[in-house]
Specification:
Chain A: Belongs to the YciI family. The complex is a heterodimer of chains A (133) and B (420). Chain A is an alpha+beta fold and 133 residues long. Chain A contains two helices and six strands. The chains are: A alpha+beta (133), B mainly alpha (420).
Chain lengths: 133, 420
């Protein structure tokens, strides 16, 4: 079963300091952690895709009636913290395993090497219909 | 002859054979099928019977026969024949040409690699389509390999290639080699420029792709491989030589360009002992050869700049005054804001950071919200000792880049300067 683990720009449970105010070594450790997690999930055969999204300041919102020119709204937007920052798509054997991976991702190191408790949303990906309804 | 040697030879000959078939018969898809059959026949027969006297002529001949058969047959029969041929290698043997065949001699005379490059990098195609088609037809990569390199689903890539072929068939059939009638500025040169651009894009795609991976080794190597075949077909063209030199000199720094955790390491901080000396020697030789007849094109000039960087044993040995002269020449020839930005760096190295910053001021409009402008300004402010401004520029650049490794690099750079 596939799950999407979602990260937003909201602050983490145990850390209010934004990453660009950390010490260089702390930033490096955090990047190293994310990288190792990606490698671990690829090796265990559970990783489908993982992507980080560019800054919300580069976002555009588009709406169209299908006939006239589309309406395009620029970012940034007032509630930046609700913005998607990145995601993993994983293919795992159980919902418990999805939660376990999310917990591991949440405990990424921050200032002083302490886990920051990032909020990770775990969402099942819709699947094909069952063989019989 | 060992199997791997035959495979290498077939890989080298494949684009020439495909080029010859497309040029003579025009149908890209059918020519590709015929090529596959000819390669299969060669792979079956050559190891057992030894190489024919003229391997390329042999392949063209077998391919041409197959193609003519295919053109005559309806598509259903064609599919059946291909399937039969794969099951029954002896039937392919029957199609092999008599080595004394007179046709071979006339076929041998021209290298059709160039024909194929012109076709795949047709101006009617978007760069993405031209890249895919070139990798497939000239590079001999499978659709799956190309899709993987671009992190795209295989079906998407297959469609892209099919549409590209269709587009060419509509646009340019029968295929006509571009004319060189207008001398220097002829159509031929414009078409060649397009080929060079596509090869350069393939390289940079492998070199600095967005997202997780900073480099995808295979695409960079593939671009160099392609530039080598182009250079074999046009050994005396300074821009072709310049492009090959530029790619070699850039790729020579590959191992030094990223750290253990994939982090970016800027030129000035790279361990130059990790640079590939062999590639540098070849690149410098080619770059020198290409400028012998003067500075005529952008690839040649960029290769000369890369050669100067490669020859500096330590960053402080870099011949910045000459690099600045070369950027001046490049800007006169191909003026664009990114060249000016590079010239600003060279200017700062020769005349001090403020002179460089003044030059970047002129780019505020043309490169607004471009992360490179902010990143360069960050470095120049750092050089000038203005850490506060540098941090602001690095932070802005980190916000604007869409490359993850680059964002990490800029964030850490800012954090280092912020530390009291």
């Amino acid at each position: 079963m596939k799950y999407m683990l979602i990260k937003t720009h909201s602050t983490a449970a145990f850390c209010d300091t934004p990453i660009h105010e950390w010490q260089p070594e702390e930033i490096q450790a955090h990047i190293g952690f994310q990288r190792a997690l990606g490698e671990q999930l690829a090796k265990s055969g559970e990783l489908v895709d993982a992507q980080g999204l560019a800054d919300p300041g580069q976002a555009r919102t588009v709406s169209s009636d299908g006939r006239s020119a589309p309406v395009i709204t620029d970012g940034p937007f007032p509630e930046t913290k609700e913005f998607l920052a990145g995601y993993w798509i994983i293919d795992v054997d159980s919902p418990e395993r999805a939660v376990e991976i999310a917990a591991q991702a949440s405990a990424a190191p921050g200032p002083g090497g302490k886990p920051i408790g990032e909020y990770i949303e775990v969402r099942p990906v819709m699947s094909a219909p069952p063989t019989e309804l | 002859m060992p199997h791997t040697a035959i495979e290498d030879l077939l890989r080298e000959l494949a684009p020439q054979v495909l080029g010859a078939l497309v040029r003579r018969y025009g149908d890209f898809d059918a020519a590709e099928d015929a090529l596959q059959e000819a390669l299969l026949a060669a792979a079956t027969q050559w190891p057992a019977e030894g190489l024919p006297d003229n391997p390329r002529g042999w392949l063209i001949q077998v391919g041409a026969r197959r193609l003519i058969d295919a053109i005559r047959a309806d598509s259903a029969r064609r599919t059946r024949e291909t399937a039969d041929a794969i099951r029954d290698p002896e039937r392919l043997g029957a199609a092999a040409p008599d080595p004394s065949d007179a046709v071979i001699a006339t076929l041998e005379e021209r290298d059709d690699t160039l024909t194929l490059f012109f076709l795949c990098c047709h101006p009617a195609l978007s760069p993405a389509s031209a890249i895919a088609l070139t990798l497939r037809a000239v590079g001999g990569l499978s659709t799956e390999e190309i899709a993987r390199a671009f992190l795209l689903p295989e079906r998407t890539m297959a469609q892209r290639i099919t549409r590209a072929k269709k587009r060419i068939a509509e646009e340019d059939r029968p295929f006509a080699m571009p004319s060189a009638s207008n001398g220097q500025r002829g159509e031929w040169n414009e078409r060649l420029d397009n080929v060079l651009r596509v090869l350069y894009l393939i390289y940079t795609e492998g070199h600095t792709s967005g997202g997780e991976r900073l480099r995808r080794g295979d695409l960079s190597s593939e671009a160099i491989h392609l530039a080598r075949s182009l250079s074999r077909a046009l050994p005396d063209n300074p821009e072709v030589t310049g492009l090959l030199a530029l790619l070699l000199l850039t790729d020579a720094r590959r191992a030094a360009r990223t750290g253990e955790r994939g982090e970016l390491i800027p030129l000035a901080e790279q361990d130059r002992g990790l640079w590939d000396r062999e590639m540098i020697i070849e690149g410098v030789r080619l770059a020198t050869a290409s400028v012998r007849s003067g500075l005529i094109g952008p690839y040649q000039i960029q290769a000369a700049i890369a050669a100067l960087h490669a020859q500096a044993l330590r960053p402080e040995d870099t011949d910045w005054p000459r690099i600045l002269l070369l950027y001046n020449a490049l800007e006169r020839q191909a003026p664009n804001p990114m060249v000016t930005l590079n010239r600003a760096v060279a200017t700062a190295m020769v005349h001090g950071p403020q002179a460089g910053l003044d030059l970047t001021d002129t780019l505020a409009d043309s490169l607004s919200a471009n992360h490179r402008l902010d990143a360069v300004r960050g470095h120049l402010h750092e050089m000038a000792g203005d850490h506060e401004e540098a941090v602001a520029c690095y932070t802005a650049a980190a916000r604007h880049t869409t490359s993850l490794p680059e964002r990490d690099y800029l964030t850490i750079r800012a954090a280092r300067l912020r530390r009291p």
